[in-house]
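[audit] Reproducing an earlier prediction to check determinism. Same input, same settings, fresh worker. If the tokens differ from the archived copy the diff job will pick it up downstream; this log only records the rerun itself.
[audit] input (65 residues):
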Amino acid sequence: MAENELTALTRQCIDGRRFGDIETLQAETSAWSCDVNNTQRGVDWEMKVDDARCKLASAYPKVKS
């Protein structure tokens, strides 16, 4: 989800723009963040947990109990 949000921030707020100072960048990203948090979008996961564990086994090794 974090990667999705960073991509959305880049595309919707930063991409193709130049900021003269850090304060302007912070104000713009803060305004974007407030708007996104107020709309509360969800994530539609396409895989079940067991399917994800099989497909992503190399990235997420099993945890021993």
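[audit] rerun output stored. Observation attached for the diff report: The chain is about 60% helix and 0% strand.
[audit] end
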